[in-house]
Structure of Peptide hydrolase:
Amino acid sequence: MSLKIAVAALAASAQLAMSYQKPAAPAEGLRLIKTSEEDPGQWVTKEEKYKMVKSKKGCTHYIDITNIQDDEVLEVLSTKTRTTVQAVDYPSNLSHVEEANKLIGGSNTDGPQKWLEHLTSYHNRHCESKTGTEAAAWLFKQVQEIASANSDITVEQFEHSDFDQPSIIARLPGKSESLVVIGAHMDSTSGAPSSKAPGADDNGSGTVVVLESLRVLAEAGFAPENTIEFHWYGGEEIGLIGSADIWAEYKSQGKNVISYVNQDMAGYQPSGTPTVITDYTDPALNKYVTLLVTEFTGKAPNSADCGYGCSDHASADANGFPAAFVFEDLPDKTSPDIHTPNDVSAILSTPLSYDTIMWDAVERHIQFAVGYLVEASYLS
Ligand SMILES: [Zn+2]
């Protein structure tokens, strides 16, 4: 990582002609959303937003930009051709495979199955519902408990002004303050804050992948060179609000982020192979992530686009940080149940368990996640 290059890239982007202006709000209490670079922004009611719940096909993805004040970020969100912030030289060979494989050997899906069963037991984890706040409080306690295996790890909640569901950040300090980050959104939806949304695949699965990777590193007493962070975001399903707040703060604090990898949907993979998402991500990081997926899962990933505002990597990307997204499968092969009451998992429930999750897919995502965190923790 060269800080000089990162600063130069930021300076270059500051010279972009700022042309995007938010349209004036026609009334109070509305939200401003964007569905593409060309979309100047539409002021809508919360109820109109709930109806736009994204699905794998058809529905429009949007980013809620109501709170975004940073002109540079607004410009990036409105510009199709943009210069990639190339801040990091990622290696073309992996150097700590043996160490990573040892740690991967300590991972399993026992915890993930138990955690996912609990996460899906809430009526929903909508960021504007009471159960969404309760689920976030449970997750915070769970992260603290898991992190307690290594007293160096700190865990904090990140509050948001728009809703009561705090995001969570666990930090394993390294010798350097450069950050290697993995994240997943914790919230779920099937529309309104009152609708049933167990959210097993979307995104209980990514949530437990990040939890298991924290458990493995914490229990092994892994001491990284770079600092590792584990993020769980609130408010993804209503326009990436939780991750937008966090990545805006990281930008304003001038944090040095080597890589962000997003985990949104990790439990449905009919092809047996994950997909590396190619849009709103960093091409050099994608190459490196492809190498990591291939090495640690034994499968060469597919690649595909997922569209404007499709998940939280877009927030890191818009704030100028190198972002990647390892998705469960090609976009047309993913779970048919997301954003419905049928996105369920209760594998431990007796006498009859029910489950839509492909646990071999979750396992692959865990293998990748642990491998990524170990390898990237040595990047310099
Ligand atoms: Zn999701």
Summary: The chain has two domains: 3-76, 97-376.
